[in-house]
Amino acid sequence: MTSPSSKATARTSSEARAVGRTRTLLPAGTTTGTGAVRRTTLPGGLRVVTETVPSVRSATFGIWAHVGSRDETPALNGATHYLEHLLFKGTRTRSALDISAAIDAVGGEMNAFTAKEYTCYYARVLDTDLPLAIDVVCDMLTGSLIRAEDVDVERGAILEEIAMTEDDPGDCVHDLFAHTMFGDNALGRPVLGTVDTVNALTADRIRRFYRKHYDPTHLVVACAGNVDHDTVVRQVHAAFAGAGLLGDGNAEPIAPRGGRRTLRAAGRLELLNRRTEQAHVVLGMPGLARTDERRWALGVLNTALGGGMSSRLFQEVREKRGLAYSVYSYTSGFADCGLFGVYAGCRPSQVHDVLRICRDELDQVAAQGLTDDEIARAVGQLRGSAVLGLEDTGALMNRIGKSELCWGEQMSVDDMLTRIAAVTPDEVRSVARDILGQRPSLSVIGPLKDKQAARLHDAVA
User: Fold this and answer.
1) Which positions ≥6 away from 120 have C-beta within 8 Å?
2) Which of 45, 82, 117, 348 could bond 68 through an S-S bridge, CB–CB 3.0 to 4.6 Å?
3) Is 11 domain-assigned?
4) How far is 177 from 268, CA to CA, in rounded Å?
5) Burial class (CB in 10 A: 0-12, 13-18, 19+), 313
């Protein structure tokens, strides 16, 4: 005898099959939860990916767009981020207040972020309120009005956001470093745009940008938590079909970004002289693309070198000498290139000592590598942080959405942990020679005097 709930499940499963192609990517038991990761491709090329975690009472629903600041021309710099703001300003059926009030009324959270290669809009709610989150976020993505008056109003908010970033040199120095490494091209320009480019953007130009980059083939829907895949598919299909966006049944999703790019930025130096209490520095060099198989070894190297309180840079710069409060290393991987950087914030009088120590450590690790103990500790730290970072539905949604958009596939947490654990000391030493053996470039923000500024060239010699 079939229970009513079983009949309902069978019905929604058949409905999902009727509107798209469904695959189970990761079976139950292989993820951080006890459910599966499944993908359905709807007519029109829209992908819906879910991860079911029955043990929680929340759900996070997000839509990822295959567009970021690197897709902008110089005149359109900042358009992707501007558009992110405007999609919250109202649709055919909801005002800006209606959008925010709907999620606030159920205690949910809603936000968005723009990066260099993608944009994401999301809402986190109780599992019982997931239909509302789907309806609101899909309405924003498919029915935004982008009215001229909203463009004018939001321009002021974005200019204030740019000013806020400019007032935070610890944040601003990373934009400066991107420009130092990439120059005046899309990856070297700020995600927010500049005062001049934001002031020049019009409603018509933003609408054209919206129509070009927000069709279903460029989008990935990601949902994680106490969710049913077939139900999510059915609701998303209804939302996009109602907006008239699923008409072409033969359309295929856009492929992950590809291409080859060789980044050459040896010995470049950029100094932005400002009256700040600290000097903020980033010393770095080209890294690896996010698809490079050596990224696992680079992750271990980065963790051991500057990823925690036991890392070399933290110990040498802060613990032993007290020259900086914040010092760390990081990697940024794009589709075809990457960055490796070391950041430190210190008193202007100490900037040359900090840079000398950082450069000495990079050179030493490039020449001699890390010890086996350092590598083992970094592997353990990286494996633990990878899992602990996936303890909420928002992180799970980010993981499966970004994986689908950027790699076109899903990797289980178990497989990820296996890949990290499989990194050998020889692989770490090899990637250290390749990455850290390059001549670095340097970006600095701070109140440096002429003689101090002249000496900065020593760090990149």
Assistant:
1) 62, 63, 64, 65, 112, 113, 398, 401
2) 117
3) no
4) 10
5) buried
The pLDDT tens digits for 397-413 are 999 999 999 999 999 88
Domain boundary among 192, 224, 242: 242
Rounded mean pLDDT, 342-362: 97
Asked if residue 341 and residue 200 are part of one domain, the reply reads no
Q: How far is Cα 348 from Cα 271, in angstroms, rounded to an integer?
A: 13
* CATH label of the domain that carries residue 448: 3.30.830.10
**pLDDT for 60-95, tens place per residue?**
999 999 999 999 999 999 999 999 999 999 999 999
- Residue of 51, 72, 84, 154 with catalytic role: 84
CA-nearest of 226, 323, 322 to 279 is 323
Q: What's the structural domain count of the chain?
A: 2
Q: Letter for the amino acid at 117?
A: E
Question: Do 452 and 271 touch, CB atoms closer than 8 A?
Answer: no
Q: Does residue 338 surpass a pLDDT of 70?
A: yes
Mean pLDDT over residues 186-204, rounded? Answer: 97
Domain presence at residue 253: no
Any catalytic annotation for residue 316?
no
Rounded CA-CA distance 36/32 in Å is 10
C-beta of residue 216 within 8 angstroms of C-beta of residue 22: no
Could you tell me which of 141, 9, 3 has the C-alpha nearest to residue 84? 141
Q: Which residue has the tokens 């109003």?
A: 153
Could you list the residue range(s) of the whole structural domain that residue 219 is in? 17-242
What local confidence, expressed as pLDDT, does residue 26 receive? Answer: 59
